[in-house]
Amino acid sequence: MFDTLLIANRGEIACRVAATARRLGIRTVAVYSDADANARHVAACDIAVHIGGPEPRASYLRADAILQAARDTGAGAIHPGYGFLSENEAFAEAAEKAGIAFVGPPASAIAAMGSKSAAKTLMDKAGVPLVPGYHGDNQDPQFLKEQADGIGYPVLIKASAGGGGKGMRVVESSAAFLDALASCQREAASSFGDDRVLIERYLQKPRHIEIQVFADTHGNCVYLFERDCSVQRRHQKVIEEAPAPGMTEERRRAMGEAAVAAARAVGYVGAGTVEFIAEPDGRFYFMEMNTRLQVEHPVTEMITGHDLVEWQLRVAAGQPLPARQEDLRIQGHAIEARIYAENPDKGFLPSIGTLAYLGLPAHTAFANGDIRVDGGVRTGDTITPFYDPMIAKLIVRGADRDQARARMLQALAQTQAVGVQTNVAFLSRLMRDSAFAAADLDTGLIERQRATLLPEPTPAAPSALALATAAVLVRQGLAQPHAPATAPRPADPWDARDGWRLGNRYQRTLQWIDNGETRHVVVTRQGGDWTLDSGAGAQPFTWRVQADNAAGTPGFVHDLRVTLGGLESAGTVVLHADKAHVFGTGDAGGAHVLDLYDPLAHAQDTQGEHGGSLTAPMPGKIISIAVKAGDSVTKGQPLLVMEAMKMEHTISAPADGKVEELFYAVGDQVTEGAELVAIGQ
Q1: What is the pLDDT of residues 425-473, one digit of tens each?
Q2: CA nearest to 199, candidates 232, 169, 179
Q3: Rounded Cα distance, 87 and 115, in Å
Q4: C-beta neighbour count of 488 within 10 angstroms
Q5: pLDDT in tens, 510-526
Q6: Angle made by CA atoms 69, 292, 244, in degrees to the nearest 5
Q7: How many other CB atoms sit within 10 Å of the CB of residue 385?
């Protein structure tokens, strides 16, 4: 085994490889771009080398810089992860020529499987089943149309060098073929620099099933069973599971043997995935081979108990496979969900920004367990436009599929992200979807179930409003109602923060903006009792904090339990940038995001009705004054700053004029409605 491993990747997969290397006692080298100087994968490795700018072509796609980093650090091997240079035969060949082991297949195998059409010709010769179609070199449009007519419609036009759903068109009729072909070729040329296409019969209600294969340099080749990756959006995987629901032992063996035949046909070494498209009647056809580790490899690890990265490293070091085919067994069921920073309601567009808070369920990291998380970002990290917006992979294991699905729902409900939009709520709905629950799977499931998977937003429930309101009260320092009698009391009664007011009554109205609608919440304290009214009448209201601000977490994070009208609810509330992100109510796995309308910030919007004076819209403290009597001011000019709810708010001039009088000084407490400044013309 080599002493030092350079990981030519970033994010989750770089952290994943580093975890196994560390367990094996291998020294690790990270490479990073300008955008990743403080990234998690850099911290996960023993050494880090800067390789260029934030764009992939200026860093992670620079084979020369990565090879130089390997030489400079004495790396005996390079692990390419997935994406970037992982399937680049020139990079693999250059590493081998430099005397550095490439943790992957030979360059010749990468080249053989790199072209879809050439790979299918090879597979045909090896006896691997193929979808009826044309995979030849003749790219004359009229000739291709004749081939499509002969195959029978619908047909799929697919870019020969394609991937990721680009350069693909489904054609329903002969009359539509030529226009679809031209469009597909333009996209293929733009995306891959190659406009060649292949044509296949378009299968109705197909499933995407892939076989994990592994080969060594000693002539051994095995398959580690299958993964079902049928649930996709935009031809990209969302959910993966192993084993495939409904798979018979006979079909598993047939698919596994076909995958091994495909690997042997190209002299394969290392980890590879042979992807098949399967029809409802069980017939399956070769689609392509990915000559690298797959994103979804953890589900295979979960059901077999083997560490596939360790297998990769051992094979790259010249060792034989750790197990024979007859040694491999399936235990239980595993499901993986990809947590992305994206907006499902807007076509799954990526969401960039700073991950202000990330909360995850109790889990193992990069190692098998009932709940496993393989992640590449942390609280405070930035999701940039330069790379894939994956936050983490959430993987669960159960004794069977039903238990695994139930565990996934629980884990998603405890996955909390603030600062970017995520697909967590969408994934939760997918787990509960009747078709998914019944394993009625195919690649069109998401589009077919769109109405229920992507519904219109619903108003926040009273429990969500109560949790958000309780979090604001806690942030203000108000005591919890019905605190234990043993709780210490302040020595000075003026230090008590229990909402006491003269007359023993306290009332506060909060305005929450919920999906564009204003929701008024009135909280009242009368004596020792609190009530909350969110539109259905005042109800008894209590709250208690179960856990508070995690160490190192910015802002305010509260685990709360509230009782409203006799009904108890629990949830986590993150207060960030005048928003309350309420987790744990309503749509499990998602957050209700409520904007707190700040009347202080909008005080100048309504000053006209106060006859030239500025009044305090709520109780607070004057902490600075920027003007004095006699000063001329212009509209929008800051006049003073108040502190309320532990936040600073600037009061600005509503119009041009002259300051006639200041009624308070710095340090003064003011009540709601108090006149602050008089301004004349």
Answers
A1: 999 999 999 999 999 999 999 999 999 999 998 899 999 999 999 999 9
A2: 169
A3: 11
A4: 6
A5: 999 999 899 999 999 99
A6: 150
A7: 10
Comparing CA positions, the residue from 45, 104, 99, 59 lying closest to residue 80 is 104
Residue of 359, 609, 591 whose CA lies nearest to 461: 591
Q: The tokens 């007359």 sit on which residue?
A: 503
The string of pLDDT tens digits covering residues 129-183 is: 988 889 889 999 999 999 999 999 999 999 988 766 678 899 999 999 999 999 9
Q: Identify the residue whose tokens are 């079909």.
A: 251
Q: Which residue has the tokens 């990915």?
A: 290
Angle at 439 between CA 282 and CA 214, to 5 degrees: 60
Residues ≥6 apart with Cβ < 8 Å to 151: 132, 133, 134, 199, 200, 201
Please tell me whether residue 8 adopts helix, strand or coil conformation. Answer: coil
- For the record, the structure tokens of 643 come out as 């502190």
pLDDT at 506: 85
Nearest to 585 by CA among 594, 572, 603: 572
Would the pLDDT of 304 be above 80?
A: yes
In one-letter notation, the amino acid at residue 584 is G
Question: CB within 8 A of 25, min separation 6: which ones?
Answer: none
Work out the angle at residue 516's Cα, subtended by the Cα atoms of residues 510 and 522, and round it to the nearest 5 degrees. Answer: 15
Please report the beta strands in 129-242, taking only residues with DSSP state E, as ranges in sequence order.
Answer: 133-134, 155-159, 168-171, 197-201, 207-215, 221-228, 232-233, 236-237, 239-242
Rounded distance between C-alpha atoms, residue 627 and residue 629, angstroms: 7
pLDDT value of position 603: 55
Residue 468 CA to residue 472 CA, distance in Å, equals 7
Partners of 543 in the β-ladder: 562
Tell me how far apart the alpha carbons of residues 469 and 522 are, in angstroms, rounded to a whole number. Answer: 9
Q: Using the Cα atoms of residue 43, residue 47, residue 49 and residue 55 in order, give the sign of their dihedral.
A: negative
In degrees to the nearest 10, what's the CA dihedral of 64, 68, 71, 74? -120
Residue 245 C-beta-side C-alpha neighbours within 13 Å: 21
- What is the crossing angle of helices 107-114 and 89-97, to 10°? 170
Residues marked active site are found at: 292
Cα 257 from chain centroid (whole Å): 35
Q: Are 321 and 315 in contact (CB under 8 A)?
A: yes
Output the pLDDT for position 608: 42
Q: At 530, which helix (H) or strand (E)?
A: strand 529-533
351 neighbors 341 (Cβ within 8 angstroms): yes
